[in-house]
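Protein Record: Sequence and Backbone Structure Tokens
======================================================

Structure line: whole-number tokens from a learned vocabulary of local backbone shapes, matched to residues.

Purpose: to set a sequence beside its fold so the mapping can be learned.

___
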Amino acid sequence: MTQVEVLAKLQLIFDDVFLEPPKLTPQLTAKEVPEWDSLLHISLLLAVEKAFGIRFRVGEVEGTKTVGEFADLIARRMMER
């Protein structure tokens, strides 16, 4: 999957998880989204793992700074399946 394809699928997940979903761009950060707190972050990660059929390793998501980096991580996890 390409970053664009992952972002498109991520947008659907964000639309379900957030009350006011942001428009995803590769440069978007969590700090730019007022609703994106630690509890919502956990819900988001669980939804992403389920939707993409992947599991994140401890600490690897925290290494991503932007939605684009997060999408690239998802794509890498999917290739490892």
